[in-house]
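dude i think i finally got it to work??
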Amino acid sequence: MPQNTPSLRELEHASAFVDRHIGPNDAEIAQMLRVVGHDSLDALTDAIVPGAIKSPAPLALPESLTEVQALAKIRAIAGKNKVLRSFIGQGYYGTHTPNVILRNILENPAWYTAYTPYQAEISQGRMEALINFQQMVADLTGMEIANASLLDEATAAAEAMTLAKLSAKSKSDVLFVHDAVHPQTLELLRTRAEPMCIVLRVGTPAEA
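look at this
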């Protein structure tokens, strides 16, 4: 029985990645358009998107890449990164995570199920790890409740600023920040403070 072996070019066609990850094919798109009463995606777009916000010019997008080409491009970009030695640290220091924590919390395969290997599952695992951490701290300290970490120091500082602003009895919009705060933390505070109309003053406690 003769076998038709596809060539490498046939196996690696640029549309394969889109077909595999986007979903509907031409026939399915046509069927959905018939249900909503339109002949094409452009006609559907014209019917639901106001003309005032549409650009007449085509999108300035490059030609699509195959999966192999995309991976090669990403590796080339990543190869430009420079791994430098950290001296001062600016809040980032080398740490050691015990293997038992690494295996059972950070790398727990339960967070990457075959059904939903997405960020939602990973976040669910992180939330469970934080709940376990909170319970451990409460048990060790005897307190009724305990807080948990946020994503990073800068995010925690921004949340603290928001909490201070919303809960303070003072009507002042000025927030004092110690000048020893890491620069990346201070930059995020400034970013969050601007839309909230909070004025940051940076200095020493004696200047507060």
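The chain has a mean pLDDT of 83.
im so relieved honestly
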